[in-house]
Specification:
Blueprint lengths: L1 H25 L7 E6 L9 H8 L2 H4 L2 E6 L4 H9 L5 E5 H9 L4 E6 L6 E6 L14 E5 L3 H12 L8 E5 L2 H9 L5 E5 H11 L5 E5 L10 E6 H6 L1 H20 L1 H9 L7 H12 L17 H14 L23
Parallel strand pairs: 1-2, 1-3, 6-7, 6-8
Antiparallel strand pairs: 3-10, 4-10, 5-8, 5-9
Helix pairs in contact: 2-10, 2-11, 5-13, 6-13, 8-12, 10-11, 11-12
Length: 339
């Protein structure tokens, strides 16, 4: 009896050992995730939904990526950091990217998720700006280094207004420029209406807040997009493609589930309310495509939109912007099945 038990035990050990060897030979090798960083244009708000959705829903992980999402301090700063290789990916204003490239930065846009420009002026409705001529003589507050401050002088000229006809005031933070309007030290502040308008209308109740949207008065320029250093494109094109695809998937999911996307973003904001973030996401969803890219994959960019953006910056600044469009953007990493 004892001999039988020993034989059975030995047989069991052999079976288990063989199974372990077989599993080791057949189990898939799990490759470590590639750790990359994404530097935003500013602190978190609704427009950043593609990235936070991609992270929470596992789209980045499915593409073999472990993404660290970092706040920014203005598109100008983000463009500079990507140009220096301090972060792998950036999210910044396309006009500011044009200025960076003209200044020698070796960077490129690989997808634009906000193609209808959202630059605006916001003000108390009791002191309105309804048309361009109403801007003349106004005190306008901006945050130093952000996208609005970078391109506003260019936009003024498209409306037939010289910068000398307005008083431009610059502040260190968005809160300071907003407070300047609230305190009557400025007539309006510049910013992205998809970000600041919902929050300001909520915070400044019961006073009514108005908005002057620059795209309704001649501004034709791409807004926020993903940018990378040229060296990363050359060294790791597969990495860039996987990052763009996961971000597209995040944008696609947000379009189908806007309220849930807002709830995901809200967890990473500072000081915003969930209703405010939900409105930000709603505004952003209305700006994903330009008139030239309707029906195209999310993030896909039209050559004419880039030409308009470059022309606007080059015409109204003293920089010598290169004319070759391929220096500024590429659609090669956009997954054409994701719309």
């Amino acid at each position: 009896m004892r001999t039988s038990r020993i034989v059975l035990f030995a047989a069991a050990v052999v079976v288990v050992g063989a199974a372990a060897v077989l599993f080791a030979r057949t189990a898939p090798f799990v490759k470590p995730l590639d750790k990359v960083s994404l530097r935003l244009n500013w602190t978190v708000y609704g427009e950043h939904a593609p990235f936070f959705v991609a992270k929470e829903k596992g789209f980045f992980r499915d593409q073999g990526l472990d993404v660290e999402i970092l706040p920014g301090s203005g598109s100008g700063a983000t463009v500079k950091l990507i140009g220096e290789g301090a972060s792998d990916f950036g999210y910044a204003d396309s006009g500011t990217l044009v200025k960076g490239i003209a200044s020698g930065a070796k960077i490129k846009s690989v997808a634009v998720f906000t193609q209808r420009n959202t630059q605006s002026l916001m003000f108390f409705a009791s002191n309105p700006i309804r048309e361009p001529k109403d801007i003349v003589g106004k005190k306008l507050a901006f945050t130093s280094g952000d996208a609005s401050a970078q391109v506003f002088s260019s936009v003024l000229l498209t409306m037939g207004i010289d910068a000398s006809q307005v008083h431009l005031l610059y502040y260190s933070t968005p809160r300071e420029k907003e407070q300047a309007v609230f305190d009557g030290k400025a007539d309006a502040f510049g910013g992205l209406y998809i970000d600041q308008l919902p929050r300001i209308r909520e915070q400044w109740k019961p006073r009514e807040v108005g908005v002057f949207k620059l795209h309704e008065h001649g501004l034709v320029a791409l807004a926020m997009g993903i940018l990378v250093h040229d060296d990363l494109i050359k060294r790791r094109p597969d990495l860039v493609k996987r990052f763009v695809k996961a971000s597209q998937q995040g944008a696609q999911w947000a379009q189908a589930h806007p309220q849930e996307a807002a709830a995901i973003v809200f967890k990473h904001t500072q000081g915003d309310t969930l209703p405010s973030v939900a409105t930000q996401v709603e505004y952003w969803l209305g700006c994903i495509h330009s008139s030239r890219t309707a029906g195209q994959p999310t993030g896909w960019m039209a050559a004419d939109d880039w030409a308009s953006t470059i022309a606007l910056v080059a015409k109204t600044t003293k920089i010598d912007a290169p004319k070759e469009l391929s220096l500024y953007y590429t659609n090669e990493f956009v997954d054409e099945t994701i719309r």
